[in-house]
Design a protein that fits this description.
Elements: H1 25-40, E1 45-47, E2 57-61, E3 71-81, E4 88-95, E5 98-108, E6 111-116, E7 122-128, H2 130-143, H3 154-174
The structure holds zinc ion.
Length: about 180
């Protein structure tokens, strides 16, 4: 089932999401619906607040177009920069909740990622890097009410200010924050 995606200006995107308790079949079904929604929108990651559920659930699929799908379902994900030599890496990001804006964001290059999968097993990945690190950091930010546009340079913010303002206004007037 394709779910509606909340966009910039929706208040749920600014809320801290609640931890998930038991992994129920309903939650796994929700995760699969999120994956379907993400694939349809050509995204690589989606967090539950984006589809109107303020819970700590994220889906990710970093497979390239020509590759087979490789979905990951992450309940209660935790992501922390690895200690030691771990310089920030700057790369372009976009977000299904902030359409038409692509800007560079600096993030830690290596992270410690852990989460509970759909079978209830805790998975622990040390030194995750590249797209997985970036995507996990972006999605866990969503669970904490943070958007990538909060982290961009002053110049990029200025350049996109009118687009952001327009989106925020549309969402307030349409009152779709409860989707
Ligand atoms: Zn996003």
């Amino acid at each position: 089932m394709i779910l509606p995606i909340n966009t910039y200006g929706s208040s749920i995107l600014r809320k801290k999401a609640e931890p998930v308790g038991e992994i129920t079949p309903e939650l796994v079904e929700l995760a699969h619906n999120m994956l379907e929604t993400m694939y349809k929108a050509n995204g690589v990651g989606l967090a539950a607040p984006q589809i109107g559920k303020s819970i700590r659930l994220v889906v990710i699929d970093l497979a390239k177009e020509e590759e087979e799908r490789d979905p990951i379902i992450l309940f209660n994900p935790k992501v922390e920069p690895e200690e030691g030599d771990n310089p920030l890496v700057s790369d372009e990001e976009g977000c299904l909740s902030v359409p038409d804006i692509w800007v560079k964001v600096s993030r830690p290059g290596k992270v410690h990622l852990s989460y509970t999968n759909e079978n209830g097993e805790r998975i622990d990945i040390r030194n995750a890097e590249g797209k997985l690190a970036r995507c996990a950091l972006h999605e866990v930010d969503h669970l904490n009410g943070i958007l990538f546009v909060d982290k961009i340079s002053v110049a990029d913010k200025a350049m996109n200010a009118s687009k952001l303002k327009r989106m925020a206004k549309e969402n307030q007037s349409s009152g779709n924050s409860a989707l």
